[in-house]
Write a structure and sequence with these properties.
- It is built from 10 helices and no strands.
- The chain has a single domain, classed as 3 helical TM bundles of succinate and fumarate reductases (Up-down Bundle).
- By secondary structure, the protein is mainly α.
- The protein is about 80% helix and about 0% strand.
């Protein structure tokens, strides 16, 4: 692994693999959250399963945290390395002639997304860790002493999306995620050597994912904000 990360090609390959891993997680995260639009019970049950199943909590969750940290650290490392390697800075050439605005500003979109992730974790993940592992309440109930109170996840989601400022922040965050993915996924496929007859199809799938998933998350936030 150390030898892989010493070369530019190796770092890009590792970056691409971490991107694919996070892409799978985002899709899974969306699949659970979209349930909240159609069925309160389905969303509650899925959230409770993911929040209490040992393999998710003690195996997948640490891997996910590592994947997020690795992806962002590697992104910043690549940006620094690329800047040092350039003999002519962007200010001295026509960068727009050879690359898109998004490709030249991945570091900034990535930085904003990192801030957004931190806010999102403070909103949901830190609260979950506090309830389950600090307070010791693994029931998932609104009232841990009253089984008839029902699971708490849907109610907590709805409450989070009541303030307009939070919904606006989430919408902006997902717009940046979409822009980041539109360039990032294409670059990731190139980094793993998929420049072949399937390139056009992969680019199409990447674009659908990059636009569709963030739009879906925006829809979820706005739906709960307007419906309750």
């Amino acid at each position: 692994m150390g030898n892989l990360l010493r070369s530019s090609i190796g770092r890009k390959f590792a970056m691409a693999l971490s991107a694919f891993f996070l892409m799978i997680f985002i899709a899974q995260h969306f699949a659970i959250n979209i349930l909240s639009v159609f069925s309160e019970d389905a969303f509650n049950n899925a959230s409770h399963f993911m929040g209490t199943f040992w393999a998710v909590q003690y195996l997948l969750q640490p891997v996910l945290i590592f994947g997020v940290i690795f992806h962002f650290v590697m992104g910043f490392v690549l940006e620094i390395k690329n800047n040092k390697a350039r003999k002519i800075k962007y200010a001295k050439n026509n960068g727009g002639a050879n690359s898109s605005w998004m490709s030249r500003n991945m570091i900034w979109s990535g930085g904003f997304i990192l801030i957004f992730i931190v806010i999102h974790m403070l909103d949901f993940w830190v609260h979950e860790m506090n309830v389950k592992y600090v307070s010791g309440d693994m029931t998932g109930l609104i009232n841990s002493e009253d089984p008839s109170s029902g699971l708490r996840y849907y109610e907590e989601l709805v409450v989070k999306f009541q303030p307009t400022w939070r919904v606006a922040l989430y919408c902006v965050g997902f717009v940046f995620l979409s822009l980041h993915l539109l360039h990032g996924l294409g670059s990731a496929f190139q980094s793993v050597g998929t420049n072949n007859k399937y390139t056009k199809a992969l680019n199409g799938i990447s674009n659908i994912y990059s636009i569709g998933i963030p739009l879906g998350f925006i829809f979820i936030a706005v739906f709960h904000h307007l419906s309750h």
